[in-house]
């Protein structure tokens, strides 16, 4: 093992899918007033009429859903930006004035009314199509995960939390004190030499290393990616004929370095001999460019379109919609995302599908084999099952920081459901979205109350505090049975405060520095460092859009650093106080005891509600609700 030291002194279903015409959606009840906006028809449940134009971004929407008493702004963000005389927070203003793609701060879409969000998103995407494909990501200059973690004493989520990431299922017991052979940078020799180092701290894929012989001296400690090509198990140098040379700073400490190494390394742990091979194998991805898939239409969530894999980075796919002539109309997602499917999937389950104008596949394009896609759990729809009109709670895919009152609008085959957010649906159902019955993004009625999460009531609903019992009675609806929801909670290993790299799902080409701020069973609240809580996102613990610290460096993807203080200076203090007061007032309306909810929600049946797991303890096979059978 130490000989190295001695050696040196110093596809057919596509056609049928393409021919599938878009399925009609049943109109909403006629008793709801209709409001037209830019040619699109919307309903507004409280009967109030009138439109307004945001003085900041120019977006048109329902006046009564606008922010502030004067209804001058479509969102809190626009109000802030206007008050500070800055238009950097407006997507449209940024595109029109500078021609630059939106930054993280520009995502005012998240807090706008759904009417405005849909219109803004469509217009924003149309503007992007007319731009050259020069989307420059935020500069990473000056940001280092190592410095960021060291200076703030942060803890990163372990690699084992991310089963879809490289080495996620075969990380083993790599931990502190594991020894490795690494290049010796404290050396004046003209050739590349190595030395032994031990892991002092582990943060995802990144490890803080200290050369053997430095004891408690941290002056030459350094961070590196443990999966990098220059990291090897102890013994690699001897087997490869590479020299082991002690760092120049400590060469004088010992005269017999071989004896020192024998003493220090006896009984120590190192990487498995095939570690680099496992890393390489775990970074092989079955999806290849030119494969065709069905993916959600980002302009109309209720339907899918055909797209072609343009590139694959670390398992993330850049998909280009097949009808995009200049190949700029794209969509980013992971290969295990529930948003992509094999060609013919939409037709097989009865999902809406946008028929392509391209009647013949382009040369070289081929259908992705169905077995490559993520499998969903099989369900039995023959017995008691979800029905149209049933109420539930769901994460809003257009505003991922909120869980909203929602309704099942259509039951599809194979356990898939079309869901709409109450109070802000388009009359033609174009903003319905598809979740599987086992999706961790849908919840039984009462989930938010039991777990102390703020539930977003239907837009325009004025009877506050919101009570499910009253709402179900007023709408003549029933709650989806609790037992139909997925209540499995894996032993995921996340803890509050852990750092990670997370996709900004409102702009999925971006991966940002993020933190886990809440844990409710398997549900994680992801906060993007440097940004306000309004940009937070609820994400499942097994989401393929979460990655260990160092994933971007390992795969070559660009990481977005935390927002700097200067990028947030446009926010006025008065606006912050106004938002805080509004938030506290809203939360005051939501005080309802578990006993009240239990008595009001179900008449004749007993339900026991388990309090949500604390923000520190998250694992185990806990259920959201347990129904006591008679």
From TrEMBL:
MBT repeats lie at residues 143-247, 255-351, 353-458, 466-562. GO terms for cellular component: nucleus. GO terms for biological process: chromatin organization; negative regulation of DNA-templated transcription. Keywords: Chromatin regulator, Metal-binding, Nucleus, Repeat, Transcription, Transcription regulation, Zinc, Zinc-finger. Residues 564-575 have a biased composition (Low complexity). The keyword Zinc-finger applies. This is Mbt domain containing 1. It comes from Equus asinus. The gene is MBTD1.
